């Protein structure tokens, strides 16, 4: 009899486990991407894949709603003083990290101070903060001057345990591959080069994710990724426009959500190098690039031809701005005005007693090699000898861009919901790799940060867009749409009006906590 009871209990337990495993399997979503994160330590792992992964496991005091409004996150309430110099956040009760430890006022204060420290890549986001005070669940930020972008910067704040930030390496070793999570997911497993597995964070304050398991599969080649989507091995993925248009569109089980993109592909000039420091030379190069042809050939129409690096889905975008159009004959005229004459080798001139040929290499990464070759082909057709040099991502940024060791680069810039562009276009901006220097733009950027109304800020950023379009420190090539192909049974990949507004920083996992499997 005892043996029979034990057998019945074992069978019930086994059945329950099988049922739970079946539910997990039915509510598992496989997401695929070409890359994997560098890590989960937000003060060092700043690549796009790491940012996407970090948004799954971390949360700040505030966050973006589905309609891109800023709403409470770990803070249940926040207030901004009338003069814009004081921010008060009241934290939720009984908050916990994924290791069951409490999220305290001290954790938040330490996280803000770490993000604002000299060791942080985000320190410029907090340069207007004079003081951070935390006491009994209340966080107070006192500012030197009003800072309109600050609230959007606090969305990106990753709240980390103070005990780890206080260590000698400020938590880097502990958090890089083993995040202590404050967001909706936890990292359960990471097999480098293969996949990362996330599950709901049982100690998250908000609604639990709609999926029981989220698997991030690493598929380096876009063609193989598209094939995996077509077979059904992958349920959600960012796909190539031509793959969708050529065969994925025929798959009756798939749906495409096309979001207005926030990433601008550009041809950037080093304004410290001759002849790229001359306005008419940059205009001439821009006039030799047929951007509409690039759009049709490489993106099958799933991209827009921009006049600036402002994303079309943002409130700050000015559709009236115009930049240099495709016109090779006008390009020859501009070059002639700068002393260049067309020879068998290309456009040449005498400069300081030496012959100067307008010829250059475009540095770029593997991801943009096809775009680079297409642009180089157009320039060669316009008698401007051009080659493409492929370098690794980290080398491009650290070896060449940061040190100014380049003439022309083909890269991309993603923009967030707030249009503040200090990092890119201010004369002292840490990501102003082109060394663009315009006192008027510097003044406008400062005004844009301190202005208190959307109407005033919109006028300011419109003027910045016009200035950039006129001076052409970059040739604004394309803004590709973010294309997420997914099985129809996976819902909430897009919410509300996001296809028109775009997702913050083109983050394909922005809605992952809202995904559900039907």
Provide an overview of this structure.
The chain has 518 residues and is α+β, with helices and mostly antiparallel strands. It has 3 domains: 28-37 and 183-260 and 482-517, Periplasmic binding protein-like II (D-Maltodextrin-Binding Protein, domain 2, 3-Layer(aba) Sandwich); 59-175, Dipeptide-binding Protein, domain 1 (Alpha-Beta Complex), CATH 3.90.76.10; 263-480, Dipeptide-binding Protein, domain 3, CATH 3.10.105.10. Helix content is 32%, strand content 23%. It contains 17 helices and 24 strands. A 7-stranded mixed beta sheet has the order 8-9-10-1-11-22-12. Strands 14-21-13-20-18-19 form a 6-stranded mixed beta sheet, sandwiched between helices. It has a 4-stranded antiparallel beta sheet with strand order 4-5-7-6, with helices on one face. It is globular. The relative contact order is 0.15.
Total strands: the figure is 24
Q: How much helix is in the residues?
A: 25-40%
Q: CATH class of the largest domain, please?
A: Alpha Beta
Q: Beta-sheet strand percentage?
A: 15-25%
Please list the strands of the largest sheet in the order they lie side by side: 8-9-10-1-11-22-12
Average pLDDT reading: 93
The CATH architecture of the largest domain is Roll
Count of domain modules: 3
Major sheet attributes: 7 strands, mixed
pLDDT < 50 stretches: none
Task: Decide which structural class fits the backbone.
Answer: alpha+beta
**CATH topology-level fold name of the largest domain:** Dipeptide-binding Protein, domain 3
Q: Going by CATH, what is the homologous superfamily of the largest domain? A: Dipeptide-binding Protein, Domain 3
Continuous helix count: 17
Taken from the alpha-carbon principal axes, the silhouette is globular
Assembly type of the chains comes to single chain
Rg, nearest Å: 25 Å
């Amino acid at each position: 009899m005892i043996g029979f009871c034990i057998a019945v209990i074992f069978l019930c337990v086994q059945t329950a486990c099988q049922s739970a495993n079946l539910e997990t399997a039915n509510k598992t979503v496989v997401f695929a991407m070409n890359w994997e994160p560098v890590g989960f330590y937000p003060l060092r792992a700043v690549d796009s894949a790491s940012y996407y992964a970090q948004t799954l496991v971390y949360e700040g005091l505030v966050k973006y709603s589905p309609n891109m409004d800023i709403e409470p996150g770990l803070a249940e309430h926040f207030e901004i003083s009338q003069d814009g110099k004081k921010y008060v956040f009241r934290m939720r009760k009984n908050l916990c990290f994924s290791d069951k430890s409490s999220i305290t006022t001290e954790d938040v204060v330490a996280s803000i101070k770490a993000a604002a420290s000299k060791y942080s890549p985000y320190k410029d986001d907090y340069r207007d903060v004079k003081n951070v005070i935390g006491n009994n669940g209340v966080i107070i930020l006192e500012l030197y001057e009003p800072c309109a972008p600050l609230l959007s910067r606090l969305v990106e704040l990753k709240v980390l345990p103070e005990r780890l930030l206080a260590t000698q390496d400020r938590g880097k070793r502990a958090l890089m591959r083993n995040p202590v999570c404050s967001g909706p997911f936890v990292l359960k497993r990471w097999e480098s080069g293969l996949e990362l597995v996330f599950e709901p964070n049982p100690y998250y304050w908000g609604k639990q994710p709609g999926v029981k398991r989220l698997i991030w599969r690493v598929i380096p080649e876009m063609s193989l990724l598209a094939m995996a989507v077509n077979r059904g091995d992958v349920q959600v993925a960012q796909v190539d426009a031509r793959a969708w248009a050529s065969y994925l569109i025929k798959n009756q089980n798939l749906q495409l959500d096309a979001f207005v993109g926030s990433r601008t592909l550009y041809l950037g000039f080093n304004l410290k190098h001759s002849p790229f420091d001359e306005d008419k030379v940059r205009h001439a190069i821009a006039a030799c690039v047929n951007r509409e042809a690039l759009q049709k050939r490489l993106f099958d129409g799933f991209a827009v031809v921009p006049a600036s690096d402002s994303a079309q889905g943002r409130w700050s975008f000015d559709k009236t701005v115009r930049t240099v159009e495709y016109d090779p004959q006008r390009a020859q005229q501009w070059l002639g005005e700068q002393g260049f004459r067309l020879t068998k080798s290309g456009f040449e001139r005498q400069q300081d007693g030496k012959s100067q040929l307008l010829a250059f290499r475009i540095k770029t990464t593997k991801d943009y090699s096809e775009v680079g070759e297409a642009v180089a082909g157009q320039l060669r057709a316009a008698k401007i000898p051009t080659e493409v040099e492929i370098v690794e991502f980290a080398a491009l940024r650290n070896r060449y861009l940061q040190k100014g060791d380049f003439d022309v680069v083909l890269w991309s810039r993603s923009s967030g919901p707030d249009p503040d562009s200090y990092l890119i276009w201010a004369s002292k901006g840490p990501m102003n790799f082109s060394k663009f220097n315009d006192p008027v733009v510097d003044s406008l950027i400062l005004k844009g940060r301190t202005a208190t109304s959307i109407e005033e800020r919109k006028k300011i950023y419109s003027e910045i867009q016009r200035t950039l379009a006129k001076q052409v420190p970059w040739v604004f090539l394309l803004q590709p749409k973010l294309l997420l192909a997914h099985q129809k049974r996976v819902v909430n990949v897009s919410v509300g009006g996001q296809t028109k507004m775009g997702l913050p920083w083109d983050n394909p996992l922005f809605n992952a906590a809202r995904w559900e499997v039907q």
